Automatic annotation (TrEMBL):
Coiled-coil region list: none
Pfam name, any one: ArsA_ATPase
Lineage: Bacteria, Bacillati, Actinomycetota, Actinomycetes, Micrococcales
Domain ArsA/GET3 Anion-transporting ATPase-like: 10-334
Entry's Gene Ontology molecular function annotations: ATP binding; ATP hydrolysis activity
Protein name in UniProt: Arsenic-transporting ATPase
CDD domains per the UniProt record, alphabetical: ArsA
Lineage: superkingdom: Bacteria
Organism expressing this protein natively: Kocuria turfanensis
Family, similarity comment: Belongs to the arsA ATPase family.
């Protein structure tokens, strides 16, 4: 069921409470798709990166080959470094602002950018830009992009941010238009000939203020287009789906119901729930009692979200580390899908 969902999508987000096995589910799903012949990129946006640990090799903030399958399938991985992403974002914004501002204000721009480093929203904005970039390039270079996301609260905000940032950028553009009209009117008062040219057009070179206005507008339009493109992918159920991973415990179940509501309000299609590490009922009294308690939490989940496909993956005897273990985990996901279907 989960693997069938991944096979029909271009972008898959895997999220949920911390410590429930999101990275293992994301990696095993990505590996199964690569084995099926697709070109797959798995992206970790969780600051507590586990992708490299899971694959037993350095991954880091660059695209790293993980698996090559004879016949064309492949799997690459990348761990988005939030600090490096924020620094790169601020450097790019600072360079743009310095280019647009008078030279004598360069010191003020640098001061503002230093203060912005720790301002609320800076980190989220930088990570969102990186996610938008990876979705954009991922759709060009890969058949499927799987995001292993941060714990629920961060991810819910990330899913809602493209719409918020698009609206914010749209507001900046409207104010930019008003400012340009006001500036043109002032220039017209300074020079009557300019006023006439603003109406009939002219071949004269633009003055620095006009060039600055046009550059600001171009920057804002590029930013709005990138957020709108990401938003279009996130809310398109034919291309994108979200999978919530959880443990059969009270708090993860409550958090899953809350996260599902936030995603639905953001317009994101939730494709499946994966209840990971289910205790066996036939391995001793302790685990049988544990299994019975888990059943009550799964029943609560089914009652709250009755229409969502629900996979139950058994607790496996070993750690899910390395390619062979991930293949076994992918097989467990496939069996869970057959039982659920």
């Amino acid at each position: 069921m989960l693997l069938e969902l991944a096979a029909t999508r271009r972008v898959l987000f895997v999220g949920g409470k911390g410590g429930v096995g999101k990275t293992a589910v994301a990696s095993a799903t990505a590996l199964a798709q690569a084995r099926a012949g697709r070109r797959v990129l798995v992206v970790s946006t969780d600051p507590a990166h586990n992708l490299g640990h899971l694959w037993e090799r350095p991954v880091g903030d660059r695209i790293t080959p993980l698996v090559r399958v004879p016949g064309g399938g492949l799997l690459d991985g990348i761990e988005v470094d939030p600090l490096a992403t924020t620094e790169d974002h601020l450097a790019a914004v600072g360079a743009t602002v310095r280019r647009l501002m008078p030279e004598h204000l360069a010191g003020e721009v640098d001061k503002h950018m230093r203060l912005a480093r720790d301002s609320p929203g800076t980190h989220e904005s930088a990570v969102l830009e990186r996610v938008a970039e990876l979705v954009e390039t991922g759709l060009e270079d890969y058949d499927l992009v799987v995001f292993d996301t941060a714990p629920s609260g961060h991810t819910a905000r990330l899913m809602a941010l493209p719409e918020i940032m698009s609206a914010w950028t749209e507001g900046l553009l409207r104010r930019r238009v008003r400012a340009e009209r006001f500036g043109a009117a002032l220039r017209g008062l300074e020079d009557r000939d300019d006023a006439g040219e603003s109406i009939v057009g002219t071949e004269r070179p633009r003055d620095p203020r006009e060039e600055r206005d046009l550059e600001i507008r171009r920057v804002l339009l590029r930013r709005r287009a990138r957020f709108e493109a990401l938003r279009e992918v996130l809310v398109d159920p034919r291309r994108c789906a979200f999978v919530i991973v959880l443990a059969a415990e009270r708090l993860p179940v409550l958090e899953t119901v809350e996260l599902h509501g936030q995603l639905v309000r953001a317009g994101v299609h939730v494709g499946a729930l994966v209840v990971n590490k289910r205790s066996p009922a036939d391995a001793g009294a302790f685990l049988a009692e544990r299994r019975a308690l888990e059943e009550t939490h799964v029943a609560t989940l089914r009652e709250a979200l009755p229409d969502l496909p629900l996979l139950q993956v058994p607790l496996l005897p070993g750690d899910v580390v390395g390619e062979e273990a991930l293949e076994r985990f992918a097989a467990a996901l496939a069996q869970a899908g057959h039982r659920a279907g």
